[in-house]
Every structure is written in structure tokens, then in C-alpha cells.
Specification:
Blueprint lengths: L3 E4 L2 E4 L4 E7 L8 E7 L6 E7 L4 E3 L7 E6 L4 E6 L8 E10 L3 E5 L3 E6 L1
Parallel strand pairs: 2-11
Antiparallel strand pairs: 1-3, 3-8, 4-5, 4-9, 5-6, 7-8, 9-10, 9-11
Length: 118
């Protein structure tokens, strides 16, 4: 069983930056894709950014040009660099990793709170 642990959330002012980390308990090289999702109060969870095993990235339109997803396989860690933060970025951010063998298996972290004050 893989465990994912997020860190790096907190309170920041509008225009500020944060870097989220997602540390996996084992190798991340076997994941088909990893990603960051977020859920604001009263809203559905949404995909923020993803990174495939061979490197291609994908971003939600609302964060393009401001957020950067990356990973360090040697450290079994994925990151989300968030710049130019806005109040609407306030949410709980979740790390996700998907393994695809005979079936799809999704792993989730416990979430980290990001609050952007205006």
C-alpha cells in the first residue's frame, strides 16, 4: 500500500507563492500519472495539474502560467510550485497517484490547506 503525504500548505497573501510537496512511501516510477487536485468549500474536487510518467504535464486553465508541477524520482516526491496566488486558489490540495496495470488504482494523500488572503 502506497502512502502519499502532502506538505507545504499555509496562509499567504494575494500574489504570494507556495510550494507543495507530495512524498510517496515508495518509488513513484511505477505510477502512470501523478497529479494535484483541490477542493474548495462547497465545490467539487478539481484537477489542478498532472504529470505523466514520461514527463508531459497538463494544467487547468485557471492555473496555467502560475503553477508548475514537477517530480523528483530520486526523492520519490512530486511538487507544485504556486506563484501569483489568488483568493480563488484557496482550497484543500490533494496529491494523487494512479497506477494502471490490470486495473486502475488511485492513491490519495490526506490533503493540505492553502489559504490566500485578499
Amino acid at each position: 500500500q502506497v502512502q502519499l503525504v502532502e506538505s507545504g500548505g499555509g496562509l499567504v497573501q494575494t500574489g504570494g507563492s507556495l510550494r507543495l510537496s507530495c512524498a510517496a512511501s515508495g518509488s513513484i516510477s511505477g505510477f502512470f500519472v501523478m497529479g494535484w487536485h483541490r477542493q474548495a468549500p462547497g465545490k467539487q474536487r478539481e484537477l489542478v495539474a498532472s504529470i505523466a510518467s514520461n514527463g508531459p504535464t497538463n494544467y487547468a486553465d485557471s492555473v496555467k502560467g502560475r503553477f508548475t508541477i514537477s517530480k523528483d524520482s530520486a526523492k520519490n516526491t512530486m511538487y507544485l510550485q504556486m506563484n501569483s496566488l489568488r483568493p480563488e486558489d484557496t482550497a484543500v490540495y490533494y496529491c494523487n497517484a494512479r497506477r494502471m496495470n490490470l486495473r486502475v488504482i488511485d492513491y490519495w494523500g490526506q490533503g493540505t490547506q492553502v489559504t490566500v488572503s485578499s
